[in-house]
Amino acid sequence: MHETVRGWIHEARSIAVLTGAGMSAESGVPTFRAAQTGLWSQFNPQDLATEAAFRAHPQRVWDWYAHRREMIAAVQPNAGHKALASFAERHPGRLTLITQNVDGLHQRAGQTDALALHGNIAEDRWLDALRSCCAENIEAGHPPRCSVCGNLRRPAVVWFGESLPADALEAAENASRQCELMLVVGTSGEVYPAAGLAFTAHQSGGRVVVINPEHTPLDAVAELCLHEPAAVCLPALLA
Fold this sequence. Notes:
Elements: H1 2-11, E1 15-19, H2 21-25, H3 51-56, H4 58-73, H5 79-90, E2 95-99, H6 105-108, E3 115-116, E4 119-126, E5 138-139, E6 145-146, E7 153-157, H7 166-178, E8 181-185, H8 196-203, E9 207-211, E10 224-226, H9 230-238
Parallel strand pairs: 1-2, 1-8, 2-3, 8-9, 9-10
Antiparallel strand pairs: 4-7, 5-6
Helix pairs in contact: 1-9, 5-9, 7-8
């Protein structure tokens, strides 16, 4: 099956890759719930990852994200991340990487143009609309804030109840419609609208290949399923 998929990769003028949490887990990134250790074991992560929670308890939520950032900083991109970045560098314009992951491992591997549908945990943005005073009056704290108006800095991730960034989602949808081949790597296929991109590719005539040690709902639209870890499978396919 590897030989078949390598042939499809060689033939495809446009390739989209959709990655999910399973790929990050291979690097040792704790899953959303696995980050609930020590002090944080008393909290449900879904009760921390909302705008309402941040407004009610900004220091608590900020410190939880600082805890997650420390855990992520301790891991490295795996061979799968590196294989994708290397392929994109060798074949400019052919591969669009779409990720549900917020850990920044694709970017650290060299994939600086990755479409991060759920944001990047290493970055911050303003909670409320940027005012003229904010940029020059950032006061350190948990979280940092504008010392003039009090506007808070927050993690630049998509919280529950928030929309995905419109530009990234539009670019991902366009890539999914236009691709001749989509590789779906390490995603459960249960989080929408990201999971719907595989259906978009399939309905638009693109081949879909699922790379995941486990069975997923997206297997139904795949021409082939490779039940292997990304760090093993992708270097073999993209060399």
